[in-house]
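Example (one chain per record):
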Amino acid sequence: MINLLKYDFKRNANLILAGAAILVLAQAALMLAGWWRDWDGQILYIGIMVIYVLFGFLAYLMMCQTYNGNIRSYSRRLLPLGSWYLPVSPFLLLVICYLALGAMFVLFDTLFSLIFDVKDTLFSMLRQFVGQIGFWDSAAMTFNFLWGLLFITVAVFMAITVARTIDGKGGTFMGIAAFIALLALIVWIESLLFPQTKDDSSWGIVSIEITEGAIVSGAISKANTSFDWGLLLFELAIVAALYYAILYMLDRKVKL
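Predicted structure:
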């Protein structure tokens, strides 16, 4: 696994380093221009936040392209690793990139609040929110985000693998159709099996309940989170089935 992760990182090292440099230079230039011209701090902060969201999306596209390229890569197949490693390594690379992007954002957020005297930044509100709902509820929400990311990634990898089993442009259209049909089917089945999860308090496999029903200083006064274990087990079964289907196509259907 480490060898494959190193292989994926080396293939994307120039792209990752160039993206990091562009992000640092872009936000430094905007902050310097905003300080020099006395721009509105809130508007400038939102603008830089949009850049971070864009880079997060580009990192996800990089992961998809890495997986797509590795499927038929001859040099990748020289590594003495089974097919089950193939979908895992790009996802781990994405998680590492997101952690680095998050660390860069924390540093930017801290410097921005000091330079422009903006108190209600995203990081400060997040710290306040975590302090109010507690560590375990925050961990549950973090797990909910990671699980959602993993779930949608497995569906994307399934679509990419389907596309790779068919030569030509027909494979691309088949992969897109498979992705849309798969998500629609899963959402429909979940709405039938777990209708209680579709209320306003539901965020994926986690439900958030405001117990005191009040807002204090712009933040929730108290909240409880709970897992929908039935939904989690159902989605876990879906992920396992999709992962098995991906491995089957990689070993039997994908043409080198």
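Caption: The chain has a mean pLDDT of 81.
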